[in-house]
């Protein structure tokens, strides 16, 4: 179990997530990522909010041409699952809406990319049984909504239970936990300071590599596969103003959200990829990793 598996998930959404209607990141940041990934020779998974994908059909074709995967990241960047903590004005959709919204998002993304998306991630990693059961029944191969920093229970990819999505079971879909450093002491009520985002950008790639190396040791001591799933956003790789005014409001995100966005973020991501390749990291799209993982299970 010396292999190091690396998965990069790019959330294709409006700038700064739910807080603006702008798409400068998707338009201008995505080509920068494609150029970087091509230079490094690595694949990634681009997870689209269905509400915006129809504006970028040529970009989805370029993503596919470059050997990457197009997946889905909800219908309108809404919250589908159970909230772990309060965010002002952000409420999960009603449970009876969840299946329809996922079905509709899948249909829209599928119509644009020409085939059904096979990989998914919820907004803010808030999942639940309805979400995973719906994804499974729609034929998705992979989901990366499990926040390792919060549950701290599933350390490696697993097939969820229909009754409890955070437990192993018999669903076909593979749940891929999103990386967190469980070796450090958390000073946050919810463990969010163990999460990897956006350490590479605000503290530097070497700081994130220290956390990765911590978990490599942690996995090795437990004889577990070393799987690292990261999430990024294309708006992180363009200059993002610290204060935005539009409509009838002014948005001023916390400094860490916009700090070092642009060229600095791209440089640090490039260094991080090099560091991961140097330690033998093997990069996969979500769906290709799920196929490999499932084949290994069937061969055992």
The third-level CATH topology is TIM Barrel
Alpha-beta content class: alpha/beta
CATH superfamily: Glycoside hydrolase/deacetylase
Radius of gyration: 18 Å
How far is the N terminus from the C terminus? Answer: 14 Å
The assigned CATH architecture is Alpha-Beta Barrel
CATH class category name? Alpha Beta
Helix residue percentage: 25-40%
Strand content: 5-15%
Q: Quick check: average pLDDT?
A: 95
GO biological process, one term: carbohydrate metabolic process
GO molecular function, one term: hydrolase activity, acting on carbon-nitrogen (but not peptide) bonds
Organism: Atribacter laminatus
InterPro entries: Glyco_hydro/deAcase_b/a-brl, NODB_dom
Structure description:
The structure is a single chain. This protein is α/β, with parallel strands linked by helices and 300 residues long. The protein has helices at 24-40, 50-53, 57-65, 95-113, 129-137, 148-151, 199-202, 205-221, 255-258, 263-278, 286-299; strands at 4-12, 45-48, 69-72, 119-120, 142-143, 174-175, 226-232, 244-246, 249-251, 281-284. It has a single domain (4-299), classed as TIM Barrel. Helices cover 39% and strands 13% of the residues. The strands form 3 sheets. Strands 1, 2, 3, 7 and 10 form a 5-stranded parallel β-sheet that branches. A 3-stranded parallel β-sheet has the order 4-5-6. The mean pLDDT is 95. Residues 14-300 form the NodB homology domain.
